[in-house]
């Protein structure tokens, strides 16, 4: 790992989409695909797709295209999805529960090991089959259990502080749903999810492309 | 409305990000900004930003930059956020509730008018202060109440069928959280949300950029 040449962030963003389409094609029983077919399913141009896949040495064969399982495997490897990851969810509100359930149901390589909250009535209860622990001990828990990723489903006001404590515990990545950007995390990778960005793109299309 | 030249989809995707940063700067009491400052906050290059904003006639003045409130206002207009939208949420599980709460709390121009479910024990109850209606009547409800957008937080297996019924009712857009792409919607605009795409980008960065 860590041996790849650095791939442009726009390409990294497109890889999970390729993966989804490849899984779809595989589920439909197909063994090979072409940049033209991928283009039709995914909406990027065929030349864009060829260029993206060339980035990490996946050259389709002229007239034969790509072997789906090999390509899927390679993208999985590049995205780091051959590894297993330990996750904790911080914030046991509806969104925290929803994300925990979603991850358990659809993302087998991510293992949610604990939930955290700061509300006395939640601490000690069981949510999504997991114990709810006291948020105060988050740093210690991460460090002791080698947690890889913390999912933050907490109010914006406390997000940065919780993020710093996760960092102190040795977290590797933050999947942040708090309605604020987490900043200054140094080596800790951060994905700030902005749910409403896509709602706002939707209103653009509704308003402008009738 | 509908008078804009068609803007490339990649630019449309970036506009909500500009909007967030502009709102942030405004909240910090700033009145003007530059492509260099925007670049630092948002991570795109300054020339990319100038090019994006030129797309819809927002020319910064050399040495003066952009007036924040004007630019915010213009992006709001382009994204269609000067309008109000009526939303329904289909699927009253945790994710449906979480998205309804999120939208009510942070997106004042979106008015959630009803929740829908097909479970007898949910129909007739009140969720997020809204009546839960029988999913069977979704088409009629949309048509009678001029609903603009349906948020789908339902299982993948039923999503396409519900989408078609929303379309028959005259829906304009679908904000889809079901774990499947909604297809073939013709004039109906669809945003397929893939929560795990960002989780998978996160594992890329954790694995490859230490």
What features would you describe in this structure?
The structure is a homodimer of 210-residue chains. Chain A has 210 residues and is of the alpha/beta class. Helices cover 46% and strands 18% of the residues of chain A. The first copy, chain A, contains eight helices and nine strands. The first copy, chain A, has helices at residues 9-27, 35-42, 46-54, 68-78, 94-106, 138-145, 156-169, 195-208, and strands at residues 32-33, 66-67, 85-90, 110-117, 126-127, 130-134, 149-152, 173-176, 189-192. In chain A, the strands form two sheets. A seven-stranded mixed sheet of chain A has the order 5-6-4-3-7-8-9, sandwiched between helices. In chain A, strand 3 (85-90), helix 5 and strand 4 form a beta-alpha-beta unit. In chain A, helix 1 runs antiparallel to helix 4, helix 2 (35-42) packs across helix 3 and helix 6 (138-145) runs parallel beside helix 7. The mean pLDDT of chain A is 91.
């Amino acid at each position: 790992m860590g041996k790849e040449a650095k791939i442009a962030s726009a390409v990294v963003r497109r890889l999970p989409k390729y993966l989804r389409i490849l899984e779809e094609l595989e589920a439909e029983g197909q063994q090979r695909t072409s940049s033209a077919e991928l283009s039709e399913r995914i909406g990027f141009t065929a030349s864009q797709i060829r260029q993206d896949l060339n980035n990490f040495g996946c050259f389709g064969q002229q007239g034969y295209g790509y072997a789906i399982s090999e390509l899927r495997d390679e993208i999985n490897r590049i995205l780091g999805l051959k590894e297993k990851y330990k996750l904790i969810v911080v914030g046991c509100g509806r969104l925290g529960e929803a994300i925990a359930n979603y991850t358990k149901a659809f993302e087998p390589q991510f293992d949610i090991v604990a939930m955290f909250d700061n509300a006395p009535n939640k601490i000690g209860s069981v949510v999504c089959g997991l114990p709810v622990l006291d948020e105060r001990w988050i740093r210690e828990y991460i460090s002791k259990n080698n947690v890889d990723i913390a999912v933050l489903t907490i109010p914006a006001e406390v997000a940065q502080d919780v993020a710093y404590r996760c960092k102190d515990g040795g977290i590797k990545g933050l999947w942040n749903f708090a309605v604020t950007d987490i900043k200054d995390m140094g080596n800790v990778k951060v994905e700030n999810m902005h749910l409403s960005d896509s709602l706002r793109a939707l209103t653009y299309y509704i308003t402008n492309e009738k």
